[in-house]
Amino acid sequence: MKKKIIFLILLILLSLQVYNALSGPRFPKPEFESGHSQPTTQSPSPRGIIFEYIDVLLLIISLSIASWLALKKRSRKGIFWLSIFSIIYFGFIREGCVCSVGSVQNIALALFNPNYKIPLTAIAFFIIPLIYTMFFGRTFCAGVCPLGALQDLFVLKPYNLKSWVQTLLGIIPFLYLGLAILYAATATDFIICRYDPFIGFFRFNASFMMFAIGGIFLLTSVFIARPYCRFFCPYGVLLNLVSRVSKRHMTITPSKCIQCKLCENSCPFGAINKPTQIKELDNQKTATKRLIKLSLIIPLLAFVGGWTGSQFHENMAKVNNKVRLASQLYFQNDTTLNINKNSIDSVEITTFETSGKPKEQLYAEAASIIDDFYYGGWIYGTFIGLVFGLSLAGLSVLKYRNDYTPNKATCFSCARCMDYCPVEPDE
Fold first, then answer.
1. Same domain, 9 and 89
2. What is the pLDDT of residues 159-176, one digit of tens each?
3. pTM beyond 0.85, yes or no
């Protein structure tokens, strides 16, 4: 009943979004001409430093409560109400910023641009959830992240996807993370913030396109639980990797598993590892041979991926403002090209010409950025090739299990499965 009330309230908020989306202004272009500034549409009004420290303190408190609820209290109801708090405070009150998901870009830009002064809150929101994940699993995803919490409210009739489908779709966040780092490191764009499907909801200023995309994600969540968290979130990639080595992690049963199978289909995210059947182990030799073959193919996939990424470096570089402006100036001044001069953005060109900056300097800066994208394309492509190869290899690995256990990498520690377990905790 409580969940239905919350669901009704959110529907009313979404209706208000339609009005704002149709009547409000569109997202303006981001500014990256000197150093870096976060896209205007994704930056809330500045706050005093004391309030930023309060945000960090509330993040730590929320993560501590989420970890206690998942590991010690084993309370799904508690995590649900923590999610409501996160939506209200980190979502609507703080307008989705500072965001751990978007902080990936701040870290990337700071590492490659010494002139960029990264906010301490961005560092804190990036590191603190990873530390908690290292010890307690993905409790940040359980009820602290407002993006995940919002989607979680729409999980009504989830459909379990096949494991191989989840594996293939799980490659998308790696693609997204790599692009986000590449564009942030070259001071080109903060694509995570620009294309965040839920930030407009929290700020009541979504463009119609972004409102539609966010609405599609939320409606999809009814049948495919948390689609953005599972198949798009770039920060989720880091949480996925760190959670694999978590010291303590929530368990389905508080004591010894009795193989009752009641939890078998309880997870809407497909994050429960089932016991390995004996007949499945009979195919382990075949799987091992397949794994050896893949281990020989993985280096090839990495090289092909790197080469492919380098071939598209110029296309990726065109997103950069300086590269795009240099290209426009070149086409405008080249009389040998038969192009429509009116199609060139005259406003940007006029602004540049009135600045008195030499064209040669702009061309040199653009050429340097294109070179950065060439090397970045190699790294990005190699990374994706490795991810694709390792994902295929992971499908060939057969691990022996005699209990139902949560998959540490993909488990959101939401505690849903615990309610299905009849085993009482040991005194």
1. yes
2. 989 888 998 899 999 999
3. no
